[in-house]
Amino acid sequence: MNEYPRTIKAYPKEWIELLDGLTESELFAIDGKFIIDKIQGSTFAKFMEQANSLSTVDFQKNCQEIPLEDWAYNGVKKKKRHEIQKIAPVISELKKNNQIDSVVDIGGGVGHLSRVLAHYHSIPTISLDRNLEFQKIGKERLKKYRRIENAAEVEFVSLNFGSDIDNHDLLAQIFKPNSFGLGLHTCGPLANTLINQTIEFKTAGLLNFGCCYHSLDPKNDFPLSQFYKSNNPLHLSLYSLTLATRSHGQMTISDYQTKERVKYYRYALHLFLVQYFQKKDFIEVGECNTRIYWGAFSDYISMKLKELNIEHQFSELEFNQFFDLAETKMKLREMWLCNLIRWQLGRTLEVYLLIDRCLYLEEQGFNVSIAQYFKEALSPRNIGILALIKK
Ligand SMILES: C[S@@+](CC[C@H](N)C(=O)[O-])C[C@H]1O[C@@H](n2cnc3c(N)ncnc32)[C@H](O)[C@@H]1O
């Protein structure tokens, strides 16, 4: 929508008209991927069905939670706790089967996952992160946790993974043949670096959950696999990568209304800049406090014009009249409905991108599986790639 109205051609007119005839709660259901009765039999319903089926990834079967004492999760947020509970049994199983003997947690943050694996599953771990503050907190906290019998060590390593090329020797010590790379929410290219280091050092394998696909370089970071490269891959622009990053967490109707309100104000600002300041390109302005979006449009736009250092003589009344114009309202509604259409494809794009990573690892000599590990409501970036070197 950033290139509206040029991009509107891509959206079938009958889909926009169909959605325009729906109530707010019906649109809320569509946004939640429900094919409601009113759209049954339409080509849009077929599109939704196809998008849903292309994004379905089976749940990981072997991640039966292993109950741990509450103390293990002291200071750990609900989302992180759920993720650790799902990941730890899978890794523990690999250790028991002697497929791995240690873990390197890439982008390990404050190191909760590393700690639980080391303390409760006796797996020596390295929590690697470039953020010194996180590592400092992690080291301090580690001293406060109860020392468990048979606990293995947690080591914190500060490294800007992927850009410290001089650190080959250090990496060779970390990425040993029987070590296993873990990447829980490796932002953008960090996942590619983990994959490539695993291949280069021929380690036992990896378990990776991607996120922040919009920080991938559309030219160099996709596709990775020869299979995609030789089969006419889709070009994933920055917009597609941003769409793949979209959260899929369940929403309440009030979250939906706020999301709509934010977009209406944001797009109205864009339309205003196009009309009165000839600024055709979409300008980054950042979000603001939710309260602002529920106030008058004039307050929002005055604030944003000030931030952009754009001088003007418009009054509050003129700003609000612009927002209330039938023509503006019609355009904003159209943009909103188009968003509801394109958002259907977020998860599909994510799966498309992750399958490329799987194929690449297969081509490089790994057995690979892809599965959903976490509940969507708790952790929307929940697809894990498990790769184990072929012996
Ligand atoms: C989304 S957070 C995930 C943190 C942790 N794995 C978790 O699930 O809570 C990504 C982490 O990766 C770290 N990170 C990002 N790029 C990195 C790089 N190139 N080298 C090392 N750490 C990096 C960040 O500092 C951050 O702690």
Structure ligands: S-adenosylmethionine
Uncertain runs are none
> Do you know the CATH topology of the largest domain?
Rossmann fold
Structural shape: globular
Structural class: alpha/beta
**What is the CATH superfamily label of the largest domain?**
Vaccinia Virus protein VP39
Give the overall average pLDDT: 94
Strand content: 5-15%
How much helix, percentage-wise, in residues? Answer: 40-55%
Structure description:
- The protein is α/β, with parallel strands linked by helices and 391 residues long.
- The chain folds into 2 domains: 6-38 and 250-345, no CATH class; 70-236 and 346-389, Rossmann fold.
- 47% of the residues lie in helices and 12% in strands.
- It has a 7-stranded mixed beta sheet, sandwiched between helices.
- Strand 1 (102-106), helix 5 and strand 2 form a beta-alpha-beta unit.
- Helix 1 packs across helix 15 (326-342).
- The model has no long low-confidence stretch (mean pLDDT 94).
- The structure holds S-adenosylmethionine.
- S-adenosylmethionine is lined by residues 80, 107-109, 129-131, 134, 159-162, 184-185, 187, 190, 211.
